[in-house]
Amino acid sequence: MTQRKARGIGLLSGGLDSLLAVKVLQEQDLELLGITFTTPFFGRNMASRTGRLLGIPVLSVDLSEKHLEMLRKPVYGYGSRMNPCIDCHALMLREAGRVMERENADFLFTGEVLGQRPMSQRRDSLRSVEKLSGYPGRVLRPLSARLLPPTIVEMEGLVDREKLLDIHGRSRKRQEALAAHYGITEYPQPGGGCLLTKDGFVRKLKELLARYPEATPREVELLKWGRHFALPGGGMCLVGRNRSDNEKLEFLAGKHLMILRAADFPSPTGVMLGTVESEEDLALAARIVASYSDAPRFGTVRVAWKKGEESGFLAEQLDEKEDYRGLLI
Ligand code: SF4
């Protein structure tokens, strides 16, 4: 009797380890499907590149809403910045698990390496991730599998444990040797792409969530563009630095957020963010936007605003942009 091929669903971060996990499993007769997740913090444009590189189908899943919800209160807290790595891995495995069930697959796999990262790849963290994901015993880590308890597919003989690896610790030597062996030459640094590990972005994100707790992925995405000003009434004002910022800000604000622009002179685009749109904040935002416009530096300036179908003008005193430096986040 021929044994059926086991089917595995792999979480692909785009980093070397997840690529190697696929390569190691491709040494066996298995059916593999990759998943990449996108959120405002990581994962854009990865699916097609990794799919091409590995020669397997890759599914791209938008996890933005669920990830942002988890980020507000992660069960296992944050790493050194605002990175909730254990909860993040668990969430991705949970979502991949749904795909596993839907596709009638047998196991999940990741490129995690035991002991490689202080928070998320300790032995107990790997267990916590599995437990939190709801798929204990179903998560295979091909790069460290021989140092971990056998998973169900190994015990059932669907995956040959002997062909899996025993990589451990922070050294990258074995991964580099494997990359050379498999001819993988270009790959991003591990964790390098996640904005939740970047100080500048995290500062803005904390400010946004404190001022606007119900912020959606749209507002988070906006944080990537323009200058950001914290307004005293609880709002935030974003001001484009160049044409591409202006276009992005306007596109993302759409009909949902207030857009400001000096009416009669070349002007950057401003967007108001926040729960409280106080009159004072709005007037201040209009002055900030005008101060970055080409309006002559005296007298008052007309600032046009629009939100959805509504629009109007404000007349504001023109100040120097240096006056607002203290509000920059
Ligand atoms: S570094 Fe970012 S993407 Fe990676 S597990 Fe942590 S939170 Fe998730």
Structure description:
With 329 residues, the chain is α/β, with parallel strands linked by helices. It folds into 2 domains: 7-194, 3-Layer(aba) Sandwich (Rossmann fold); 198-327, no CATH class. The protein is built from 11 helices and 11 strands. The strands form 2 sheets. Strands 6-7-9-8-10-11 form a 6-stranded antiparallel beta sheet, with helices on both faces. Strands 3-2-1-4-5 form a 5-stranded parallel beta sheet, with helices on both faces. Helix 1 packs across helix 7 (173-182) and helix 4 packs across helix 5 (123-133). Residues 42, 83-85, 88-89, 120, 191, 194, 196-197 line the site of iron/sulfur cluster (SF4).
Provide a compact summary of the structure:
The protein is an alpha/beta fold and 329 residues long. It contains eleven helices and eleven strands.
Give the SSE map.
Elements: E1 7-11, H1 16-25, E2 31-38, H2 47-54, E3 58-62, H3 64-72, H4 85-102, E4 107-109, H5 123-133, E5 139-140, H6 152-155, H7 173-182, H8 199-211, H9 217-222, E6 227-230, E7 236-239, H10 243-253, E8 259-262, E9 270-273, H11 279-291, E10 300-307, E11 310-317
Parallel strand pairs: 1-2, 1-4, 2-3, 4-5
Antiparallel strand pairs: 6-7, 7-9, 8-9, 8-10, 10-11
Helix pairs in contact: 1-7, 4-5
The protein binds iron/sulfur cluster.
Iron/sulfur cluster (SF4) is lined by residues 42, 83-85, 88-89, 120, 191, 194, 196-197.
